[in-house]
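pasting for the record
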Amino acid sequence: MRIVIPKERSPGERRVPMIPSNVKQLVKLGARVEIEKGMGNPSGYTDDEYISAGATISPDRKELLSSADVVLRLHKPPIEDITLLKKGSIHISYLDPFNEREILNKLVSHGISAISMEMIPRVTRAQKMDALSSQASLAGYVAVIIAADRFRKIFPMMMTPAGTIAPARVFVIGVGVAGLQAIATAKRLGARVEAFDTRPVVEEQVQSLGAKFVKIDLGETGQTKDGYAKVLTEEQIEKQRQEMAKHCTLADVVITTAQVFGKKAPLIVTGEMITGMKEGSIIVDLAAESGGNVEGTIPGEEAVVEGVKIIGLKNGANHVAEHASQMYSSNILSFITEFWDEETKGLKLRLDDEIIKGCLVTHENEIFSEALKKLI
């Protein structure tokens, strides 16, 4: 089986989908791994390292893609790349399938079996394949480091001959994987941390990290079977905003992480709430790419509103590309290993498997995912 890894084409992307040590493991399985020349350079991995791991290097992108049995990448494929793939080949990457209808249609028409890494189900067997969680964890860390760098004060309390410096106050909104890592990082830096989530079940996790859980009575809330927060009603959102405004007013740094997979991110921090915040405070919006949790967020840029700096963080994991590549590569390797067939020395998609049912979006010229079928 020919596993091909092309160079990423997204501007500024420094992560790579597969690192040399994991390529070596694919080769041991019996795969023939072929890499586009220079693929690993953005994360500091040379072609020689991949060659030492057992891969072959080629400068001919079109030939690589047209001959591939499996294609591994980070981002959704350009349309022109899909047209090069042979029917029956397997494509593994982020796909954003609920929003990228043209890409989905092209995958269907060309008979590609497409795995969406965002749709790996949150079941115990699939934890080691969960790229959303691995990358979100790093983004939560990066959000705090960036906030600390932009903030005019230090995070920890200090007692000095010149006087005592009070600790910074950090308010984290959304306690998923990114939020938990943001809490942990802010605590390590010595900040006083509060956190809120619509799911009361996460209170214990917040407290275990040494932070205070902010309780807001929103009535019936909860989480989906995959552990995501359920969508709130407009009345619940308004009540949440009113209560959170009080905590934003006290905060030096606010980090928002609330996202709903396949949908626009909910607006949580309004312009009115920002007006009530202290001049010089920082907001880092981790949902910037999916619409933003903060009014005034500009994806990939910093804006100042009423003296408050709003950082629309895009692709947070890209700031720590080496470790992000290591984690994503491990996620991909775990998926391939789970479905590797020793007899044929190839990747076998077991269509009745719960993981495949969750993440296989197109197969044999049809939409395979039940979730996507319902949408379409």
